[in-house]
Write a structure and sequence with these properties.
With about 70 residues, the chain is mainly alpha-helical. Helix content is about 55%, strand content about 0%. It contains three helices and no strands. Bound molecules: zinc ion. Zinc ion binds next to helix 2 and helix 3.
Length: about 70
């Protein structure tokens, strides 16, 4: 039974996969807009647009919802 010994952690599976969008603040139209943009970008498999939406949303969360 050497199978368990040779097991290695999987590579970083988060790389290349869609990252979760930050949690939107209820009632905030801007948050809802970022989530919608992220969802639309993922729908068309536009990874860079989805990443942009996440970055912009995190910045928005930091500036408006601290
Ligand atoms: Zn917001």
């Amino acid at each position: 039974m050497t199978g368990a010994m040779s097991w290695q952690p999987p590579p970083d599976f988060s790389y290349g996969l869609p990252m979760p969008v930050p949690t939107p603040v209820p009632g905030c139209a801007d948050c809802a807009d970022f989530v919608a943009r992220h969802r639309a970008a993922r729908y068309v498999r536009d990874g860079s647009a989805a990443a942009d939406a996440r970055v912009l949303m995190r910045r928005h969360l930091d500036e408006r919802h601290r």
